Each structure stands twice: as C-alpha cells, then as structure tokens.
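During the reporting period the student researcher (J.K.) took over the structure-prediction task from the postdoctoral fellow and processed the backlog of single-chain submissions. One of the processed entries is reproduced below for the supervisory committee.
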Amino acid sequence: MTLRVLIVDDNQALCTVFSLFLTRNGLDCRTATDGEEALRLAASFHPDIVLLDIGMRGLDGYEVAQRLRKAEGPRPWLVAMTGQADAERARTAGFHRMLAKPFRLQELDAVVQAYAGRNEKEAHG
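J.K. obtained the following structure tokens:
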C-alpha cells in the first residue's frame, strides 16, 4: 500500500520540494498552502501522514492539528514543521513528531520511515 502524505506549508516552494522528494520515494502526496485547504484535502484524500507547518496565517498548524484529531475517520500521523515550536504545545495539539526548520530531506525521510516502521510492527505484532 502506498503511503498518502499531505504537506501543508504557506511556502509553496517548500511544498513542491517536499512533494517531489517524497513522490520520488514512492509516496502519494498532496499539498496545501493554508489551514482551510488542508482540512478540505484531508477530508477527501485521507492522508496517513500530515506534514504541517505551525506558523501559518489564518488557521495555524496547532488549530489544524486539533481539528484533524477531532474529524471522523482514520486519524493521520501528525508531524509539526516549524522553526519556533513549543514541544509541549505540539504534543498537546496531537503531533507525533517534530521537524525543526530548516531540516534536511534525509530528516524528512527518516520521519516517514519511522511511520512506516511503526505500522509494520503493528501489523505483525
């Protein structure tokens, strides 16, 4: 099964780079540049992983994470992408992991692999 990843960042260039990288690694990716768009996409795309910028205008990443956690259906694995994260607040909002900006693509890949490994253990354990 191909992992579905929703990338949410108000920087379109970053969304594009992350999406190209993950798509080349065999993942199915969609991008959103604001919180409202992210919530609409998540409702129809049903991502396994959401890479979510914290510091967006409008609905910030914390609010989007809380709404995703309350939505019906499977809950995605939430990864905060931020330069000024409050780790405790991120955990409270429901984030599973954090990536501190700027980060390398290898760090992004490691987070995706951690999710895949976690699910592999659950399937066999």
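The committee noted the following: The longest strand covers residues 77-82.
J.K. will present the remaining backlog at the next meeting.
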